[in-house]
Amino acid sequence: MSFSVSLKNNFTNGSIAKQSYSFCTDGRSRINSWDNKIAELTGRPAYTVLGKKYFDVLPRIFTDGKDAIATALKEEKRLSFRGYSFNCLHGHINADIKISPAKDADGKVRKVKVTISPNSTCLMAIKLRNLQRLVDIGKAASTLAHGVRNPLNAIKGAVVHLREKYAGERTLIEFTKIMEDEVLRLDNFISRFLSASTAGAEPFELDINSHLKRMEVFTSMQTNACNISTVYEYGDAPNVIIDAFQFEQAVLNVINNAIDAMKSGGMLAVRTRPEKRFGIDFAVIEISDNGPGMVESRINNMPVPFGDKGKGFGLFITREILRYFNGHLEIVSKKGEGTVVKLYLPAHKERRQDAGER
Asked: How many other C-beta atoms lie within 10 A of the C-beta of residue 353?
């Protein structure tokens, strides 16, 4: 005897889509089939559930105090529930449930099909899916870090050669110095990543305006090539505590997205200022463009899987860097009207106290 459970669910934009999850049991309610989709949904791989009673893994469905699936089998009738409070890993969801007995070739009922259509979103399922995505990102990042090492060394050698050959070219020397600094910073970052993790970074007090001015110089080559006008306005932004390389990565991800969105021609604006929110002083970096903008679904569903030229991945990295240093990311965008991205980082407290004492 066997039955199959099919959960129709979608966790995109909080709406319900038709995606199925299923498993099967034998006549003693022991799980003997467990597909990859339901494994992802529950966070339980097949080897941990095979042979277990289904109600030891998933919540039992009741009718009149009895197991609804056993009742459907015994009475050979279809059962339906609307708005059934179905416990999930995070608490409960309301769902429409259909339990349909099915006959084998000999005409005997030996299996039941159960369809659960949630009317609300299971928050834990979202978390599980995002955790799996983080695992995938971690694997890809490790591979990338190893692969970057060799071309990075080649770039380093080429920069040294250019600096020595064109020692009299003042502008070229300025750019090669920036390139050398960035190559060294990236090399150190990769070393930390491969030996431990990005959490091993060494944050210190950072003047964001000073770093942005350096970034303005080497991003000017990209914007000039794409015929993009730029505006940089440096306000009285407070210092912050962050790793310099990760700060630059967070900002460059957004700037590069803006340049790529406008492709050829447009306006890029980068502004800094102080702002007090939730009773906390922040340094704000606001990056805006007049490109095509993003649809709301894309903003609300970071991280976007590895597609669309990696734009979603870059925003995801920026968001995680800010979160690690107790900041946050805000995006305002309308299709056809451009995008404004705001990066918030907490102001360095010691600096604020010193300023108050003076």
From this structure: 10
Residues β-bridged to residue 271: 233, 286
The 8-class DSSP code of residue 78 comes to -
53 φ/ψ sector (left φ>0, alpha ψ -120 to 50, else beta): beta
- Asked if residue 166 and residue 249 are part of one domain, the reply reads no
Structural domain including 176 reads 124-196
Tokens of 346: 């907490």
Q: Give 52's pLDDT tier (boundaries 50, 70, 90).
A: confident
> What is the C-alpha separation between 233 and 81, in angstroms, rounded?
60
pLDDT (tens digit per residue) in 170-203: 888 888 888 888 788 777 777 666 555 444 456 7
| 98 and 182 in a common domain | no
Last residue of a domain, one of 92, 121, 150: 121
Least confident of 78-92, 255-269, 272-286: 78-92
Residue 231: phi and psi, rounded to 5, are: -130, 120
For the record, the structure tokens of 119 come out as 């009317």
3-class secondary-structure state, position 135: helix
**In terms of domains, do 81 and 129 share one?**
no
